[in-house]
What we know:
The chain has one domain (26-204). Helices cover 20% and strands 40% of the residues. It is built from two helices and 13 strands; from the N terminus they run αβββββββββββββα. The strands form three sheets. A six-stranded antiparallel beta sheet has the order 3-2-11-8-7-6, with no helix packed on it. A five-stranded antiparallel beta sheet has the order 4-10-9-13-5, with no helix packed on it. The chain has a two-stranded antiparallel ribbon with strand order 1-12. The radius of gyration is 26 Å and the shape is elongated.
Amino acid sequence: MEPIAKKFALAASSMLLAASAFGATTIGNTSADDVTLDAQSADAFVFTSGWNPQAGLNGNTSGMGSTFNSYGSGDWTLLGKQEGGSSTGFSLYSGLNFSFDVGDGKTGTWTIANTSANQNVSLDLVLSLKAANGAAAFLFDNQTINAGQTLSGTWNIDWFTGNNQSTPGFSNLTIFGREMDTITTPVPEPGEYAMLLAGLGLIGFVARRRKAL
Length: 213
């Protein structure tokens, strides 16, 4: 009877494990290069099961834990969010605009645009993707977006869900920033343009004279 009891206990244990795995989300193959910006992979990433970055009025950064602490400090600010589907020109911060292409629900593209005509922006930027019962956040440390510049990137969901280890589809997007600095680039006055042209003309005159000699 003892071997039968052991077999029964083992079978019951396996059933419990399978039941607990059903619907669960795991990190799978997630890595820093799952999200890119300006052809560069993220500097760091974190995955947390059961986390929704969009929760709450100002978003929920609890799932990041201390993973990004070594890259900077300060509070995170909610910059934008998107609930399903594609969108363009969305932002909660006046200086930046985002676009998001949902693609096939597992891979797609995104952009960040600096709408200022004369201010460069530097910040720690985090793009958080939620799919099924889990979310991953990708950090771009000290990211600079020059005045009037648009940077393009890609995204990919590569974690697993359920006992069949399938890749879930996109649910929502949340974007955070911290240590945001703006640098005003001086715009030349009309008189400065005239002086610049005169200087170039003088250089050309001298070059031609030397060539003639």
